[in-house]
Amino acid sequence: EPEVTQTPSHQVTQMGQEVILRCVPISNHLYFYWYRQILGQKVEFLVSFYNNEISEKSEIFDDQFSVERPDGSNFTLKIRSTKLEDSAMYFCASIVAGGTGGFREQYFGPGTRLTVT
Amino acid sequence: GESVGLHLPTLSVQEGDNSIINCAYSNSASDYFIWYKQESGKGPQFIIDIRSNMDKRQGQRVTVLLNKTVKHLSLQIAATQPGDSAVYFCAEKAGNAGNMLTFGGGTRLMVKP
Asked: What is residue A84's three-state secondary structure?
């Protein structure tokens, strides 16, 4: 069964450094998402991406964050200058199609654990 | 170091019993409600969804109930198995959102053999 993959599984970085988290969504999917989960807390929406542009973003997704789909398969989340509070699991998700007409199951990747020291 | 997260409510059940996990939601404009299962070290896994114009939906061994009057959602798991042990999250999708999900706080289900 097709699945969303993410690399690396664990990233350790120093405060102030830039990190890029990578995701390969399911190949025929069109909408892509990033969520984060601080240890022991609920999953929080960061951003959605469709047709090579951001369609929605939360207030967490400030100027330090950016997303990109550099080629036909990868979807990346960049944090320009990491802070201690960015330490969390970051999940990528994708769906076949979006829109407001119904619900499409989001398929989540296994996550990247980001640790900022 | 790592921050200490919120303490998750825990439901402990005996294998073979039925489990009921509850969730309160806040947005009256949500048009879909979804249950996800998250096993340790993995991403959320879709279980079942229900549209806001329904009050009950059944899947394989699972039933979701929606009470819009009190903004309450529940997940019933029949004949709970050890493999059901996980954290369960409810999520809601607002009617005007492109499938953006808002997750609830999660409940840890522990199944005793």
From this structure: helix
Using a CB-CB cut-off of 8 Å, the residues of chain A touching B32 are 102-103
d(CA A111, CA A66): 17
Which chain B residues have a beta carbon less than 8 Å from that of A39?
2-5
How many other β-carbons are positioned within 10 Å of the β-carbon of residue A85? 10
- pLDDT for residue B70: 93
Half-sphere exposure of A78 (CA within 13 A, CB side): 9
Other C-beta atoms lying within 10 Å of the C-beta of residue B33: 25
Task: Give yes or no for residue B1 having a pLDDT over 50.
Answer: no
> C-alpha distances in angstroms, B80 versus B1, B50, B88, B91, B108?
36, 21, 14, 22, 13
Residue whose C-alpha is closest to residue A84's, from B21, B109, B2:
B2
Give residue-wise pLDDT tens across range B91-100.
998 876 667 8
Query: Is B3 a residue whose pLDDT tops 50?
Result: no
Tell me the C-alpha distance between A31 and A40, whole Å: 27
B25 touches chain A (CB under 8 A): no
Which band of pLDDT confidence, cut at 50, 70 and 90, is reported for residue B5?
Answer: very low
